[in-house]
Amino acid sequence: MQNVSINRKAGLTWISLMVLLLFLTGPLILADTAQNPEGSKDQTTTTEQSTDEDITFSGGEIIVSAPRIDIPLDENPSATTVVNRAVLDTMPRTVGAEEALALVPGVKVDNQANGERVHLSIRGQGILTERGVRGIKVLLDGIPLNDPTGFAPDLFDVDWATVDKIEVLRGPASALYGGGGSGGILNIETADGGPDPISGDTQYTMGSNGFMKTLAVVGGTEGGVNYRFSASRTQGDGFRVHTAFHATNLYGKIRFADTKRLHLTAIVSGTSFFNENAEGLNINQVNKDPEQPNPDALLFNEFQRTRRGTGGFVGQIDLVEGQNLSFAAYLRNTRWKESVPSSVQHRAYEGMGGYLQYNLAFDFGSFGNRVSIGYDYDQQDIDDYRRPNLGRAEEGTEILSDETIHQENDGIFFSDTLDLGKGWTLVAGVRHDKINNRLNDNLATEEADLSKEIDYSETTARAGLAWSVTPTFGLYASWGEGFLPPATEEIANNPENLGGFNESLEPATSRSVEVGTRGTLGSEFSYDIAVFRLLTDNDFGRYRISDRPLETFYRNAGFSRRYGLETLFAWFPVDAFTARLAYTYSDFTYDKVEIGDEVYRDTRLPNCPRHMAYLDMEVRPLPHLSFGLGVQSLSRAYIDGTNSTWISGYSLVNARISYLVNLGPVPMELMVSGRNLLDKDYIAFTEPDPDGNSYQPGPGREVFAGVVLHL
Q1: What is residue 604's three-state secondary structure?
Q2: To bridge 505 with a disulfide, which of 117, 267, 364, 486 should be the other Cys (CB 3.0-4.6 Å)?
Q3: Higher-confidence residue: 459 or 3?
Q4: Counting Cβ atoms within 10 Å, is residue 660 exposed (0-12), middle (13-18) or buried (19+)?
């Protein structure tokens, strides 16, 4: 009970700080908006007004903020891809992250049931996570989706139809974001409201396997305040039996657009997501009927349900010339329930956090210098209990486990960006993180008590050098360290007991070197090429045990080596044609890995194809008519670290048609799209399950149609 009291005090302290910050900044908002009550239309950008037309290098015109400062892309010495509206508008369903990130090299997204539940990895980091995203910092309009351990349980908060830009920084960024940035950064920005007092969009899409999505958006600028609110409902039956899903997403963003000293954005969101879980199949089941569920999935009615609300704000205070404070704070409440064969698990999450960062820009001799120093704090309390699953998710009265978990992460960081002149930019940074996990066993007795406290801490650094040789050609090189602590799902899944911590886990640490080039050739061709080496100690692996089937546990698998090539090309010879190609070569191996009682050496990481490519072409024969064709290809991938079995590679063909017409003053866009048009039978991804239920079949041919009204 003592820990609970401490948690409440910490929560009250953080809420008090938020209220104090709002009290201090409120007069600045009122003063600045009063000076210009009509607003400034030229400071807002609607979705339709976005002018960035490709996702590669653009001569320093693209500004990225994922490195915690606003920096031109050509001065950023890290492999970074920016996905803008030109690519996001081609998404046929706007549901899964695999659509939005298809043209980002080095990124692999596995959609588990054709809905919003996905695996996401960068350079193989997080490839073996059963659910959620680990080792990748995910920011939505500046608010982190990760918990204090660096784990983002899902991406359900993101409605990809409302996203305006995505920045993907690949490679270790722990010196920027701690354990959440070991594999990279996913910085997602939603669209602002338009320049008019009020405008909006409505969208309706339907298609194969009972898919439907309805979206409504309203926004505008009034009295110096820019606002945008969206609501959507998505549902589908899934292409396999027992993979139905439905989701409701609400999102609001209010930006005080015309303040001079204070720039503040308030954000509120809510999501409700439910999905049935068909689990993986063995090879005999796949050959018999790839659409069937695992028998246990039906017998025990496996599913997950998530309900979450988030509120917060991000902003910046301009102090004097060359100095400012950037900040963010958020509160988050989540209710989660999962049915698995052994139990039905209930969790209630209460999270809060934020950051404060001081930025200073000054001249250092003949050099320009930008220094940042800051502090991150995240906290989460979890109430967790399990009851036996009697079948069909009916719960028994016995309490199998009952525990509370308190997690905190304190991170202090420093970074320096030095403009050396003649196109040279030097970036360096260092960070120290401490993560605390405390578990109280509410069923503890004198004979058995699973209460435990585990701390992880690490200091990480990064350094990079970028050289803009010409305005259209740049080179960069960087070195960075990664810190990947055991995430919530890994440490809380205890193979020894139902409840308690998995105490055998150690943090994984990594070291990476990358070299890259990006630029344009004339006005018709752009490119982005990076090569890297990533070495990881105590890399994680997955396994299962016979007496708790279809539950996943984690251990330190050993040392891994990753070598890779990531390329992105765009060709636009005429205004009416664009072609983009993302290609990734991955050579990911374990130096040594223990599987069961055997030790294997120099075997490839599971679920990591050596070759991945995505080609997208679009032709616009008329100003309001466009045709698109996409081809996705992956080479074979191994099932587990023994490399004794694998799945074959595959290629999928997708297509789309879009036509814009006017219904009087109202523009209307009609869209038809098809995925896997050749109806290819394939395994979308695999999981390293020793019982053989490793295979996750992909959907066959799907067709979708939609309409968007711009009001």
Answers
A1: strand
A2: 486
A3: 459
A4: middle
pLDDT band at residue 549, thresholds of 50, 70 and 90? low
Ranking 121-125, 355-359, 438-442, 496-500 by mean pLDDT, the lowest is 496-500
- d(C-alpha 83, C-alpha 164), whole Å: 9
Q: What is the bridge-based pairing of β-strands 424-441 and 323-340?
A: unpaired
Report, in this order, helix, strand and coil percent for the chain, each rounded to 5.
Answer: 10, 55, 30
- Please say whether the dihedral angle defined by the alpha carbons of residues 110, 112, 116 and 119, taken in this order, is positive or negative: negative
| β-strand partners of 493 | none
289-323: pLDDT as tens digits: 999 999 999 999 999 999 999 999 999 999 999 99
DSSP string for residues in 201-241: EEEEEEETTTEEEEEEEEEEEETTEEEEEEEEEEEE--SST
Say how many C-beta atoms besides its own lie within 10 A of residue 532's C-beta. 22
Query: What number of CA atoms fall less than 13 Å from residue 633's CA on the CB side?
Result: 12
Q: Are strands 184-190 and 136-140 parallel, antiparallel or unpaired?
A: parallel
Output the CA torsion 45→51→53→55 (10° steps): -50
Question: What residue spans of 267-410 are helical by DSSP H?
Answer: 283-288, 295-299
Report how many helices (DSSP H) and strands (DSSP E) the chain contains, helices first: 7, 38
Half-sphere exposure of 461 (CA within 13 A, CB side): 3
**pLDDT greater at residue 54 or residue 317:** 317
For residues 386 and 497, the answer to whether their CB atoms sit within 8 Å is no
pTM of the shown model: 0.90
Rounded mean pLDDT of 474-479?
A: 96
Contact 604, 589 (CB under 8 A): yes
pLDDT at residue 8, as a whole number = 37
Average pLDDT, the chain: 88
C-beta of residue 353 within 8 angstroms of C-beta of residue 378: yes
Cα 430 off chain centre by: 23
Instruction: Classify each residue of 376-399 as buried b or exposed e, where b means 16 or more C-beta atoms within 10 Å of its C-beta.
Output: bbbbbbbbbbbbbbeeeeeeeeee
